[in-house]
Design brief:
CATH class of the largest domain: Alpha Beta
Helix content: 40-55%
CATH architecture of the largest domain: Alpha-Beta Complex
Oligomer: single chain
Shape: globular
Number of domains: 2
CATH topology of the largest domain: Spore Coat Polysaccharide Biosynthesis Protein SpsA, Chain A
Strand content: 5-15%
Number of helices: 15
Radius of gyration: 21 Å
Order of helices and strands: EEHEHEHEHEHEEHHEHHEEHHHHHH
Length: 405
């Protein structure tokens, strides 16, 4: 439970909550807080509203920056105990607080957002008044922003659970108070979910609890702290992919019955947006080098995980130069499927080692995607990703066939 709560207006109930999870965001948090207040006043002025900063006991003055931001809407600050980090732990506090406040609707936005407008609160909150229980964001993103989403989270989640949610780890969400209760009571919690696995976990639980889902078109590109896809992934990759694999184990009886995906309703005004997202620079040489280095380090483990056909094909592409490099989509699909099976079977005896061994292959897949889409527009690259997702769905019998009973 939260050990630190500051509730200057003594709020004890609310209809709608906007939450901003944070860790050391003193420089950034005032902007989304201001826009959240403006959005609540403008579009939900008839409702009892509160803005909640769910923090990880930041030591840079995040609490003061949040509480001192002038807003018309009351604010609550809550924090995890000292030493307890993790985005998911912030959400756990949020779920409990939402249940306590008996709120009907919850909107969550990232603390480092630079492109948020008051309309974002409307886009994520309004569908909850129209019988939707979970709202995922839909924004124009640079084709090389969100490569974990593009290569893993989106196509795999779509293939497994039959719902096309383009940004399942988008960071900005809307969900109902009743879904917050499902989240708060779920027994599937893990260390991965307590950290960066939280977004994909929330999306997956919504899909598996028959919650009406929609996507809200946000009207502007998401602008936040950009990341080079070739930079160190650290724990984020492990936590997101580990959560996807954990959820595959939990929900196997459901996804085995799902054959094809169906579109998810888009709430908003279509994809006719002309404003372009900021560029994302990709170091292709670094991606290639990390792929090559991974071969020498991970081959012993891969021999235990992958079928001979997949292993031979990987050795084949290892022989390609950077200029000629190509990681075929069907090979990537089989790599992910067989890695998920290896994770379920605890191959190698250490799940973290297994997830780490996937990283160089992910770098190779990212390099291949960059090379194939270099001259494409954002829309053309989007169509390319959609076509890859179809390959995942077409190949699903291979996963079912190999999944341990």
């Amino acid at each position: 439970m939260f050990t630190d709560e500051v509730n200057p207006d003594k709020v004890t109930s609310a209809d709608i909550v906007v939450s901003i999870p944070s860790y050391n965001e003193a420089e950034n948090i005032a902007f989304p807080t201001t826009k959240a207040s403006e959005g609540l006043v403008q579009y939900f002025g008839h409702k009892k509203a509160v803005i909640i900063n769910c923090d990880n006991n930041s030591n840079d003055g995040t609490r003061e920056a949040f509480l001192n931001t002038p807003t018309e809407v009351p604010k609550i600050y809550i924090s995890t105990p000292p030493g307890v980090k993790g985005k998911g732990n912030n959400f756990k506090n949020l779920f409990r607080k939402v249940v306590e406040l008996k709120a009907d609707s919850v909107v969550v936005v990232d603390a480092d957002l630079k492109s948020i407008t008051p309309q974002w609160i409307k886009h994520l909150g309004e569908p909850l008044e129209n019988d939707f229980g979970f709202v995922a964001p839909l924004y124009v993103r640079h084709k090389y922003d969100g490569t974990i989403t593009n290569a893993i989270a989106y196509p795999l989640t779509r293939c497994l659970y039959g719902r096309r949610v383009r940004q399942p780890i988008g960071g900005d969400f809307g969900f109902s108070g009743s879904l917050a209760e499902i989240y708060a009571l779920s027994e599937t919690w893990s260390d991965h979910i307590a950290n960066f696995g939280i977004d994909i976990w929330m999306t997956t639980l919504a899909m598996n609890n028959s919650i009406p889902i929609c996507q809200a078109f946000m009207g502007r590109p998401k602008i936040h702290k950009p990341k080079d896809p070739g930079a160190a992934l650290g724990l984020m990759f492990q936590q997101v992919v580990g959560t996807i694999f954990d959820m595959m184990i939990t929900y196997a009886p459901f996804w085995k019955r799902v054959r094809w995906s169906k579109p998810t309703a888009i709430y908003g005004f279509g994809l006719g947006e002309v404003e372009m997202p900021p560029p994302v620079n990709v170091d292709q040489a670094k991606l290639y080098q990390k792929f090559v280095d991974g071969f020498d380090q991970e081959m012993d483990l891969w021999r235990e995980v992958f079928a001979g056909e997949v292993l031979n094909k990987l050795k084949e592409i290892r022989g390609l130069s950077q200029d000629k490099f190509d990681f075929p989509t069907i090979l990537w699909v089989k790599v992910l499927f067989e890695m998920a099976v290896g994770y379920k079977n605890n191959v190698g005896g250490n799940c973290q080692d297994l997830l780490d061994s996937l990283i160089p292959l992910y770098f190779g897949k990212t390099l291949s995607f960059v090379k194939k889409t270099e001259r494409m527009s954002i829309q053309q690259a989007e169509e390319f990703i959609e076509n890859e997702a179809v390959v995942f769905e077409e190949s699903k019998p291979y996963l079912i066939e190999n999944w341990p009973v």
